[in-house]
Amino acid sequence: MKITGVNVIILETPGSYQATSGGEEAYGIKYLGIVKVETDEGITGYADLETQPHVAKAIVDAPSEGAVPGFQGLRSVLIGEDPFEVERLWHKMYMASVYYGRRGAAMQVISGIDIALWDIVGKKVGQPIYKLLGGGYRDRVRAYASTLFRSTPKGMAEASRAYLDKGFTAVKFGWGVFGEDHARDVELVAAARQTLGNNVDLLIDTGWYIHRTAKEAIQMVRRLEPFRPFLIEEPLSPEDYDGYAELSNSVDTLIACGEQEATEWGFRTLIERGHVDVIQPDLSRCGGFTAARKIVHLAELHNRLCIPHAWISDLLTAASLHLNAFMRRSVFQEFNVTSGPLSRELCQNPIQLEEGFLRVPQGPGLGVEVNENTIEKYRVG
């Protein structure tokens, strides 16, 4: 089998992502890139990209500099290759983009292509990806609702009640207005905890875009600790490894980071220098399954929790469920609850919450089928 096509499809929806004030849900993502890898046997692999899709398309479409390494478009180095050779192709893409990549958008495109290659391999051999990774320890994963902070305690209570009614046993509030006012931050978290009660886990994403020193982050975590957050996510810049070490060593609450990180050596730095308690590799950013399998082993070696970040569509949720199935210890599956069409309409059979859990897809490859009608409806490039 040979690769015959590699393309990034750009989708655009009419709404835009922003927080709401009450129990109603945020709209969701406006732009989304879909990686489509085709083969001469008619087997196609898909993945979604949590990156700027127009930039991603340029990285794939860019012409090659011939034999000169480091400046090549990614399609040019993949055509004619065997999709089964995921490890070699990952390294080939990395070297092809090394002078303009190594991290950021180039690595995010590599991630998407890698996921699509694993999808192809699974479809060819008739097996789900978690089995190709090495085995499945579970067939379902506990989900947490991933949502934005509301602007008032009343809104937080309304939203929390709505997630309880839907069957969630864990909720993560993040971004939105959090970080603008310390007193209000406490009021919002208090309202969520009071409504959720003592038996539902509360996760807090404080937003790395709010600039904090390590000491300010320590003070913030201590203000929130009375409300027993399961973890506090990305309170510092993703590159502030020393700040993370100071924070993690100073508080009892689990500190999580990693959605912006990539490659096994990046996560090694985050663990060994940053001392974080929870790593959060995003399959669409960290290097795909080829890198994530190594990252999972790294977390196990250092006895850290690994909770995959997965915010965009059911395609990424499905991929992350396979990674969660492969891990010896699984804690949560992030579940994007935004209301926009790309969250739940990109797959023909949307992933459904069942008594607080998500089922690991058992079909070949990712185990979900892309809804071509949704792609055509929102395609702009």
Determine the N-to-C terminus distance. 28 Å
Low-confidence stretches: none
CATH class wording of the largest domain = Alpha Beta
Share of helix, binned: 25-40%
* Assembly type: single chain
Strand portion, in percent?
Answer: 15-25%
Q: In the CATH classification, which architecture of the largest domain applies?
A: Alpha-Beta Barrel
Number of domains: 2
CATH topology of the largest domain: TIM Barrel
Which structural category do the helix and sheet elements fall into? alpha/beta
Largest sheet: 10 strands, mixed
Structure summary, number of beta strands:
13
Indicate the radius of gyration in whole angstroms.
20 Å
Pattern of helices and strands: EEEHHHHEHEHEHEHEHEHHEHEHEEH
By CATH, the superfamily of the largest domain comes out as: Enolase-like C-terminal domain
Judging from the principal axes of the Cα atoms, what is the shape?
globular
How confident overall, as mean pLDDT?
A: 96
Helical element count?
14
Could you describe the 3D structure shown?
It is built from 14 helices and 13 strands. By secondary structure, it is an alpha/beta fold. The strands form two sheets. Strands 4, 5, 6, 7, 8, 9, 10, 11, 12 and 13 form a ten-stranded mixed beta sheet that branches. β4 (140-148), α5 and β5 form a beta-alpha-beta unit. It folds into two domains: 3-126, Enolase-like, N-terminal domain (Enolase-like, domain 1); 132-371, TIM Barrel. It is globular, with a radius of gyration of 20 Å.
